[in-house]
Amino acid sequence: MISAVKGMNDLFGKRAMRWGRMEEDIRRIVENANFTEFRTPILEEIALFKRGVGETTDVVQKEMYDFLDKKGRHVAMRPEGTASVVRAFIEHGIAMNEPMPFKLYYIGPFFRYERPQKGRYRQFHQLGIEIFGDETPQMDAEMIFTACRVLEHFKIDYEVHINSIGCKECRPAYREKLVEYFSSKKEHLCEDCQKRIDTNPLRLLDCKTCNPKAKYHDIPVMTDNLCGSCDTHFKQLKNALEIFHVNGIIDPFIVRGLDYYTRTAFEIVANTGGSQNAVAGGGRYDNLVSDIGGPDTPATGFAMGLERLFDLISEDFYTEPLISAGYALCDEAVDDLVHFAKHMSHHPVRFFADYKPKKFKKALQKADKAGAEFMFIIGEDEAKDKKILMKNLNTGEQKLFGQHEVILIVNELLNYESGKFSATKV
Ligand code: ATP
Ligand code: MG
C-alpha cells in the first residue's frame, strides 16, 4: 500500500470545509487592512534561501527540501515566504513601479524537513504579510496588530512577546558581548550551541536543547545595548502598540530563527501550555532587500502557522451548514429528481440528489447518515402529480410542494437555517 509522504497531510470532509472557511476569513481580514495577495512559486533556486534566510540557520542547514532538477539546477521547495517575496519584489522593480508602502499577503504551503509531531509537519501552511518601503515603528505596530486581529477574530487566547535585536550599528558589539559571555560556559552548552558561539551566537538565547536562558540570569540582553536610533525606534514601537491596544511582553530572548531581522522581532504564543504553541512570528528586515541585490528598502512582516491556528479554533466556531437530500423511490421519479436537482443548483442551499431509486426507509437512513436535516422524496404518486414531498428530519414535519415551486422550497430552507443559527448564536 502506498501512503502519504511522512509529515504531509490529507485534508477532507468537515475539516477541509472548516479550513476553507478559516482561509476565507483570514483573506477578508487582511484585505480590509489593504493587503493584496502575492503568489510566488513553490520552487526557487536554493541560493535564494541560502542568502535570504541565512547559511547558519536551522532552516537552511537542516530543514531544506532541496534537489537537483533534470538539468542539474539546485532548487528547493520554499521553507518560508519572505525570501521569495523579496526576490519577486526586486525582479519586478516594485520599488519603482508601485506606491510605497507596498502591503502584501500570502497563504499557502511551505516545506521543512523536520521531525513530524503535533503542530510540526513537513508540509505546513502559513499566512504571511509583508510591508515594503516603510521604516516607521508605527508600521511595525500595525503589522503586529494585524496578526492580533486574526487571532482575535478566531477568539484565541494569546500572548505577544516583543524585542528589538538592533541593527548593523549596534548588534556587532552586542554579539561580541554574547560570545565573551558564553565562551567561559562552553562545556555547559549543547553541541549545537557550542558551534553557535562562533556562527550565530544570538541563537543561543532561544535554544530549546540546553536552554541557557533558564540557567543563567545575567546574560547580556540586546535591549540594554541598542544604539540611540534603535532605542528610539523601540520606544516608539511600544507606544504605538499601546495605542493599538496590543499588550506585548518585552522579551529579550526573542531572536527569531532567521538571519535577516533588524530591530523589531516578535512572536505570538497561544496560552495553551502545549509545546508547539508559537503561532506566529516576524519582525523588521531593513537590510534583506539590499542584501539580495535590490534597492535599499526597509520592510517588516510576519508569518502565522495555519495548522497551529486551526487547532486553536474552537469546534463550535463554525456552524455546520444546513444540508438537504433528494431521493427517487421508483424509476419513473428519476428524471423529475434530475430536474429538481438542476433547479436547486441555482440557489444558495446545500442540496444533493441520490438518483438510484430506493425504498423510503433506505432513503431515510442514507439522509440521516449524510447529516441531512431535510429530505425530498419523489415516489410513484408524486411523480404522477408532479409533486415533491419535503420532510424535516428533526421534527418529522412533512409538506407537499409542486416540483416547480423551488423558490418556495428554498425560502423554507433558508428561513429554517437562519432561525436555527439565531437560536444557537447568542
Ligand atoms: P518553531 O520555533 O516552532 O520551529 P519557527 O521559528 O521555525 O517555529 P517561523 O519560521 O517563524 O517558525 O514560522 C512562522 C510560524 O510557522 C511558526 O510560528 C509556526 O506557527 C509555523 N511553523 C513553522 N514551522 C512549522 C512546521 N514545521 N509545521 C507547522 N507549522 C510550522
Ligand atoms: Mg522551526
Written overview of the protein:
- By secondary structure, this protein is of the alpha+beta class.
- It has 16 helices and 16 strands.
- It has helices spanning 13-32, 46-52, 58-62, 82-91, 94-97, 137-153, 171-183, 191-199, 212-215, 228-243, 288-291, 306-312, 334-344, 360-369, 380-385, 406-424; strands at residues 36-37, 43-45, 65-68, 74-77, 102-111, 123-132, 158-164, 248-250, 262-270, 278-284, 299-305, 323-328, 350-354, 374-378, 387-392, 398-402.
- The strands form three sheets. Strands 1-5-6-11-10-9-7-8 form an eight-stranded mixed sheet.
- The mean pLDDT is 94.
- Residues 80, 112, 114, 119-121, 124, 126, 257, 276, 278-281, 303, 305, 307-308 line the site of adenosine-5'-triphosphate.
